[in-house]
Structure prediction request, 864 residues.
Amino acid sequence: MKVCPLASIEFLPPISLPTAGLMLAVCVLAYALIRTLAGPPASISRRRVLLGLRTAVIGVLLMLLWNPVSVTETPGTVERPELFYLVDASASMQMGGESSRWSDALRMMRDADRQTAGVSGAAVSLFRFGQRLSAIDSAQQVGLEHVGAEDSRRQQKGTDVAKADPPRPENLPKVEPVDSDSRLLEALRQVSSRFGRRPPAGLVVYSDGQVRDPDAVRELAKSFAGLNVPIHVAPVGNMSGDGDIAIAGVVAPRRVRKYSDVDVQAFVRSYGYDGVTTEVRLLAVDPDGTERVLNSAPVSLRSGFQPVSLTFRSELGTRELKISVAPRAGELATNNNEFLTTIDVDRTKIRVLYLEGSRQPVQQVRRGNQYSARGPYSDLKEALTKDPDIECVVISAPGGNAVRVVESSQSASRGFPVTLAELSAFDAIIFSDVSRDAVTDEQIGWVEHWVSERGGGLCMTGGEYSFASGGWADTKLADALPVRMIAGDNAWNANASVRVSADETRHPIWRILEDEQQRRNALAAFPSFTGIQSGLELKPNIATQLASTSDITITARQTSFVSSLLSGFSGRSASETRLMDSVRTAPLPVIAVGRYGSGRTMAVAAAITAPWANEFINNWGTADSDYYGRFWRNAVYWLTENSSIGRRRLVVQADKRYYKPGDKLTLRAVTFDENSNPTQNYRVATMVEPQQFLNDDSFYSPIRWPARLTRTSGEEGPFVAWGEEFDLPKRSGDTDAGGFAIELDIADAVESGSSSQALRFELTAYEDYTQVDSTSMDVQILHDPFEQQNPFPDFELLEDVARASGGRVLAGPQSLADLIGELPVAIGPPEVRRQPLWSQWWLLLVLLGLLTTEWFWRRRVGLA
Prediction:
């Protein structure tokens, strides 16, 4: 739109017309008198050119005397009416079907703006309100074309106003509706301070009406009628529906190990569907958009918040997860029926220490033109290292000899770790047919501590020197394993033929095939073993039995021994009694797993090397199926799921997986020295960071500043600022355990309007000023925002606000356009500018040129 000024010419002579006529008459009489007295002019002066020049000079002088004036009239200033748009930015505005309530409000603004593009329109100031009122910097961010004070000034000056690009999704504002409360009362109180020298023509509130303190809002609206500032309301939302089901929040680890069981906690909020059964599904979203169902769980809905636990096994391709619940007919909103989250797969190499005590000889095997050593350990080592993320170091201790100088899988000489720090470099240990005499008491203590405190994985398999036969029954490792050992020479039977049945087939170790039926068929064909460790008992309530046997062909020696036990031999020992009970209560455990402290343990009663496990190694499945390798790789991944902490010198944990507003959060940390011994000689600096930037201007986390800590950052607020550092206090009386701990209070309400807010604690251990180690821990705070407890909009409140303030209920873009078109436009008096033409440079230049030309011409023709 361009406003052009009006231009015209006026004549303002300094003398009146009669005076000018009198002066002209005097000039004529004077000329006649001079001609009479002086006689006619000389003939030389009667040349036409000279007469023409003099006539032109006289004409210009007469024109100047007539005083023509250029008059420019600019229309008066157009003062467009001012409107304040208040857009509800609370989380309930995310609800909707194909489009959300937030999108509907923005679309109404843009459509009304298009309809008023040909008129003067209104000067719009945009604000968002939720937990607080704040201005949106540029109205053009929502696609409005004729708003903003700068555009108004440009129109007043008659210049072109640049219009915004046509509204496109990428032009929508970065502001999103995420606030947990819709505090319209505070917004209306604060907005009056934004008025200029005169109040705006009105307010337009875009909201679904779900606000705090509705009665107080009704009362406050009456005061705006007294200010002559009506509040117009634009209700958004759907009133027709039965209720709503939403995936309100998800708690999932940010980083997981490959092939590990991941527990995802989904939180379902429902309204109006009490007693209805639905299904919550966990899906993997592949890079090409394909979705795969990982797990599902039935849910009987009830009003409010309810958790649903879903577990899946992580894979390299699993990056993005979707948790969804199927929409129901009559549901108010469907865009909240799914929740997306992402995870990262930790590709840190898993280091396995494998001790093999089998007395089978090492052979030289020719492969092409090269010879390589192949020992009893080779099958398991090759099965594990087929996975590029597993590294296996083998130590040989044939015959149960003490490990001193031994042979590794890489033909390098090394022994069992001689320090706890060396042991902590590994994630899992496998003892296969290894005698207790192969390691020292101190080393056994290291292994027990490494499993229980640092999350290591421990596996012991059968053989002549394993379990009780190898002297392990009274060691600390016996406490860690998932089976009890019956001491005695008869615990290992090398000649028994054992048929094995798989139990607990859903355990991750048995997941050798993805297809359920194929997996069942493979487990049904589980091979038999030669040799069994029969003197084992499953620890109740601690261990899980993965495989057992009730079909053992026992040698004559054992048959005689068992018969003597069953006949009531009065001199039998306690260990013999336990063995008798184990025979009576068959089946015997063959594969058992359990947890010990922070770590995991596994016991295999059968030997895992040739010749006892030939069927297991070579004949399970087809030639290319590699069931044996998949079994052991699954076992290693399961054993080491918590082992990543074993390599760290700073380990941190919280007392819960997730919290609610108002909860207490206990943060604990343990530090280790270079020898992996716990120590408190370090300083542990801690700070809180958001996992993602919030759409608000808060500089503070929802964690209250601990009252007992001295604050040195200069902050004075009650909450810990994002990035503000504090030291973790040492636990008194815990110097030997290297412990640090603090109890933190969480705010009663969080800033984010979603049902979860993710935080990250960043911890760094320092020795003086040297960084020793650093780590992080994610914390999620779940809550049930007031905004989302009732999904139905409250149009009645909005109508009451409009009525009390003298405003209107705007049903759509046309109603808003009509309102803008009816607003009075104030036009100021026009601005008139007059400029005499004689002051123009070109006119004076013409006069000077005529006089100069006339002088030169007279000189040329010989006039004086």
Notes: The two ends are 63 Å apart (CA to CA). The mean pLDDT is 81.
